[in-house]
Amino acid sequence: MKVGIVGLGLIGASIALSLKDKVDLVVGLDNDLEVLRIAKERKIIAYGGTDCQSVPSDVDIVILALYPKAIIKFIQDNKKYWNKNQLIIDVAGLKNEIVTTIQKELPGVEFLGTHPMAGREISGIKGAREELFLGSNFIITPTEKNTQESIAKVKELALLLGVKNIYEMTPVQHDQLIAYTSHLPHLMALALVSAYEEGSEQIVGRSFLDAVRVADINENLWTELFLANKKYVVTELDKLIAELVDFKKLIAEDNVLELTEKIREIKIIKERIKQ
């Protein structure tokens, strides 16, 4: 298998690191010469460049590891470079708009949306790690325009990354669920830090640090993600706010019985969603 990766940030470079000794070839594409220098120096890629001519035409899979809007623009600007023997995939955190748009833009080339559920607070190639995807979930969002052969090829790729679970769902289902499982936790962490109380760092415990771990995020990427998925994000925020209001009411009223029962019921649910 020969793989081309467009975008050598945290995710793209981590994919390259994980694949470099497991596939026949990994080449990289990035518009930042310093990133390319680091990628070559660390032997993250075999070679690379700043334009699509750096990706050989016999590459089996082209992985788009860019921001959602940048993925669409990249395809629109460079669709002449890809051929019917190649599979194009992306690894962005949103799927519906990307999949719908690109499958229209590339009628003769197969495009399949994917989302490896892994990341770090450190962005960029310097944060790349070979083990980033070990034990993680990997989402594939096929449509009627995708073949079983391509789905199998992506599953093979995911297993090479070391993922634990591979799930299939529609692009819309993905965006609905990701609003709850990813966007909401990041917003909660941001809100907790935003409500900072002077001097509280003196008595910070493990629970607080765990809760705010993902607040240290790439503000440009996450602003784009929140706004692009705002329909589902706002719905999940409404649900969360309603839960907080209920907790506030029970505590304010010293309602021991209902508060205890609510916590007990939540613990049962938590057991079901443990990985």
Labels describing this entry:
2 domains, Rossmann fold, single chain, alpha/beta, 275 residues, 10 helices, 14% strand, eight-stranded mixed beta sheet, elongated, 6-phosphogluconate dehydrogenase C-terminal fold, 8 strands
**pLDDT < 50 stretches:** none
Mean pLDDT: 93
The share of residues in helices is: 40-55%
Distance between the termini: 31 Å
Helices and strands: which structural class?
alpha/beta
The biggest beta sheet reads: 8 strands, mixed
Radius of gyration: 21 Å
What CATH architecture of the largest domain would you give? 3-Layer(aba) Sandwich
The coarse silhouette is: elongated
Task: Count structural domains.
Answer: 2
Percent in strands: 5-15%
* Number of DSSP-assigned strands: 8
So how many helices?
10
Elements, N to C (H/E): EHEHEEHEHEEHEHHHHH
- How is the largest sheet built, in terms of strand order? 3-2-1-4-5-6-7-8
Explain what you see.
The protein has helices spanning 10-19, 33-41, 68-78, 96-105, 148-161, 171-194, 206-212, 219-228, 230-252, 256-272, and strands spanning 2-6, 25-29, 47-49, 61-64, 87-90, 110-117, 137-141, 165-168. By secondary structure, the chain is of the alpha/beta class. The chain folds into two domains: 2-169, NAD(P)-binding Rossmann-like Domain (Rossmann fold); 174-272, 6-phosphogluconate dehydrogenase C-terminal like domain (6-phosphogluconate dehydrogenase C-terminal fold, Orthogonal Bundle), CATH 1.10.3660. The chain has an eight-stranded mixed beta sheet with strand order 3-2-1-4-5-6-7-8, sandwiched between helices. The protein starts with a strand and ends with a helix.
